TrEMBL record:
The entry's keywords: Membrane, Transmembrane, Transmembrane helix
Native organism: Kineococcus xinjiangensis
Annotated spans, Disordered: 1-20
Record-annotated membrane-spanning stretches: 60-85, 91-111
InterPro entries attached to this UniProt entry: Phage_holin_3_6
Name listed for the protein in its UniProt record: Putative superfamily III holin-X
Superkingdom of this protein's organism: Bacteria
Length: 143
């Protein structure tokens, strides 16, 4: 047996000689590789979303802190304005004027905010329309 070749499985002979694989093997390989790719992409997306959520949480906390600091600033500024005006026209009138100013600011902001909310379309409006179109197409695919 010194000059003989080792016995090979008939299915591997063609692969070793010509590198050919059956269509079933190719499809199986593609399916496995595609499944692995999709799995890794989903895993990557989850990781990125987790990281983005952490950053968004930190940012939201900073904005909340800024809002509290801004509110305290406006309260102190209002008190200062009342004290300055109070010396000139009396503290009762000064308090009334500052309160009316803040009431006007609040009303203007509320009206503008309402207009902005009215610009928002109903939830999933475009998706609902396209789903209805898909259903109609599915019922009558030739029309």
């Amino acid at each position: 047996m010194s000059g003989s070749h080792p016995v090979e499985d008939p299915g591997t002979t063609s692969r070793a000689n010509g590198g050919e694989r059956s269509i079933g093997e190719i499809v199986g390989s593609i399916t496995t590789e595609f499944s692995t790719l999709v799995s890794k992409e989903v895993q990557l997306a989850k990781t990125e979303l987790r990281e983005d959520a952490k950053k968004a949480g930190k940012g939201a906390g900073m904005f909340a802190g800024a809002a509290v600091a801004g509110l305290l600033f406006l309260m102190c500024l209002s008190a200062l304005l009342v004290l300055v005006l109070g010396d000139l026209i009396g503290y009762g009138w000064a308090t009334l004027i500052v309160t009316l100013i803040w009431g006007i600011v609040a009303a203007v902001l509320a009206m503008r905010g309402k207009k902005e909310f009215q610009k928002i379309p109903p939830p999933l409006e475009k998706t609902t329309i396209t789903l209805k179109e898909d259903v109609q197409w599915a019922k009558h695919p030739t029309s």
